[in-house]
Design goal:
This protein is of the alpha+beta class and 587 residues long. 24% of the residues lie in helices and 40% in strands. Helix 7 runs antiparallel to helix 8.
């Protein structure tokens, strides 16, 4: 009986201890999501507490919350308590992102949640979660990727055009790219629009307006089915509400939504094996080939340039030109490669060239054999070969080559130097030089007296140098001003040319952020820039001035600006970068 009573007491104490145990957990709605999706995280506790501290949510933007809910229940005479803090998060980049620890104080004790890691992938096709508060708004804004060729050949150019479609009842106040396509299996070059133009069009049969965001030129480097990742944007929109103002106009409400283009699949065809020339090196396009010598008549020891070039439309940066096969008596140096290639949304065009410096060593006539160049033409779907003509190099003057068989019967060529070294004097008449006494000379007394002047000069310069190095703040200010001039030098060169100036100014601001914050252009959202600068010790005014400059660069693309305005923006940028750098240096 005593044993049963003791067991009952232990069981009761165990139950009370379990009832008193504090639980504080972080629960996410999903462990994997696209960069254009949203995540819900709940911080749940079974006892009420104080001084709740959420994590910093690094890598996310908080788009909703905190929402607080409290629940008390009595079931069969037992009470339960639940309190939840909920947040809605929008990822700013792809990768494995960690939600840090939240804190709560319960009965004087501090409790923390465990970190939670979620995997953010490239944008998924448009989410259809109607419970999302922005579902209706997002259905009025669409990003569309249009592919010029769905079945290109390997190394054949095609273009992806990104368009932003907006319903006529929705306004857009700006956007920024939060996730760029990687184009892992392509050679790529993006061609941004210099000035956005609004077009009228339709989307799924409905009237829409659209702008072309950018065109990206792609050359596939693999065959088979390849995926083109979507571009993801954060867009500030103005959506109409059911309310109207005093003049009867609909009242709009600002919102920020995330939209992405759908994934695109293309099928890259292998270049045909039938008829492939032996000298084919991967050139694809509509090309021409030429071989020229700067001169064909010269003397031994003189130099000529042998130029091998290809021009036209094609993958000019993605193949190598053929090499010449020259006689041994012609000394050949490594080629100088040059390119004059223009890239637009139709592909690369221009010319590439290898220039060889050739120096003949002896008298005679030397043929440069024809050089062949093969490429694949997607338009005709055939390989084409171009061969140059034979070039004859006539060396008029110089040592002659003589041939004689050796003891093994092998013919050996030697160069008859002749009188080419007759200018060298074989005998000389040398005269002894009179050696003057050094002691007592001007040089002697100069070396004796010089230290009396040099030593005080070194002491004076040393003191000045120490004072200069000790001026820490002055050195920081000079360094900051120098850095500002360095980043803004390109913009200053383009004063007067509005488009070039503001593109250079924006690029200089981005380069400054890369240098100081170690971030890439794709990560440069305004919120992230503001947060990183604040963490490094920058003041609020300096941060606002810097972000204002970025907005000025963006708006100046679409509105005219005078030279005076450009000069003012340049001066303001110089002062802002200098002041910002001083504040970051104090950290």
């Amino acid at each position: 009986m005593k044993l049963k009573f003791g067991f009952l007491i232990v069981l009761l104490f165990t139950g009370f201890s379990m009832l008193g145990q504090v639980k504080f957990d972080a629960v996410v709605s999903k462990k994997s999501l696209g960069v254009n999706e949203r995540l819900r995280v709940d911080f749940e506790m079974n006892q009420d507490g104080d001084d709740f501290k959420p994590p910093t949510f690094q890598g996310f933007t908080v788009v909703g919350g905190p929402n607080q809910s409290v629940s008390r229940q009595w079931v069969n005479g037992k009470s339960s308590f639940s309190k939840v803090f909920s947040y809605f998060l929008q990822p700013n980049t792809r990768g494995n992102l960690t939600i840090g620890q939240a804190e709560i104080t319960i009965d004087g004790e501090t409790y923390k949640t465990l970190p939670v890691t979620v995997n953010v992938t490239a944008a998924v096709n448009r989410p259809t979660d109607e419970n999302n508060e922005d579902f209706t708004v997002s259905n009025t804004v669409h990003v569309v990727a249009e592919v010029s060729k769905n079945s290109p050949y390997l190394n054949e150019a095609f273009t992806v055009t990104y368009k932003l479609y907006v319903s006529r009842r929705t306004g857009v106040n700006g956007w920024n790219v939060i996730d760029e396509p990687k184009y892992a299996d392509f050679w790529s070059q993006s061609i941004d629009e210099k000035q956005f133009k609004v077009y009228d069009g339709t989307y799924q049969g409905e009237p829409y307006r659209y702008v072309i965001l950018r065109r990206t030129l792609l050359y596939p480097q693999k065959t088979g089915e390849l995926n083109i990742e979507p571009i993801t944007l954060n867009i500030n929109v103005e959506v109409p509400t059911n309310r109207r103002d005093l003049f009867g106009m609909p009242v709009t409400q600002p919102k920020q939504i995330t939209v992405a283009a759908d994934n695109k699949k293309i099928n890259v065809k292998q270049l045909p094996q039938d008829g492939r020339p032996a000298d084919f090196t991967g050139a694809v396009g509509d090309l021409d080939f030429n071989v020229e010598a700067s001169k064909t008549t010269l003397d031994a020891g003189e130099a000529l340039d042998l130029q091998i070039s290809a021009n036209g439309n094609g993958n000019l940066k993605l193949f190598k030109l053929p090499k010449p096969n020259l006689p041994n008596s012609l000394e050949v140096y490594d080629p100088e490669h040059s390119e004059d290639v223009r890239t637009n949304y139709t592909g690369m065009s221009g010319n590439i060239q290898d220039r060889y410096t050739v120096v003949p060593q002896s008298k005679g006539k030397y043929p440069i054999p024809p050089i062949s160049f093969s490429y694949f033409n997607p338009r005709t779907e055939k390989y084409e070969t171009i061969s140059s003509k034979e070039i004859l190099i006539d060396v008029k003057n110089g040592p002659a080559i003589t041939s004689s068989p050796n003891e093994n019967g092998v013919v050996k060529s030697t160069v008859d130097a002749g009188d080419q070294f007759k200018y060298i004097i074989a005998s000389t008449e040398l005269q002894p030089m009179e050696q003057a006494s050094f002691f007592g000379s001007r040089a002697f007394w100069g070396m004796v007296v010089a230290p009396l002047f040099i030593i005080p000069l070194f002491i004076f310069v040393g003191k000045k140098r120490k004072a200069y190095q000790a001026d820490v703040m002055g050195n920081r200010l000079r360094k900051a001003d120098k850095l500002a001039r360095k980043f803004l030098s390109d913009a200053k060169k383009n004063l007067g040319n509005q488009k070039a100036f503001y593109l250079a100014l924006e690029r200089s601001l981005h380069n400054y952020l890369k240098a100081k914050l170690n971030i890439q252009t794709s990560d440069m959202s305004k919120d992230r820039i503001s947060k990183l600068l604040a963490e490094r010790g920058a003041g609020e005014q300096a941060i606002n001035d810097f972000l204002g400059l970025l907005e000025s660069c963006e708006y100046a693309r679409y509105t005219p600006a005078s030279t005076v305005t450009m000069q003012e923006d340049y001066n303001r940028a110089s002062q802002t970068i200098s002041e910002l750098d001083k504040q970051l240096l104090r950290r």
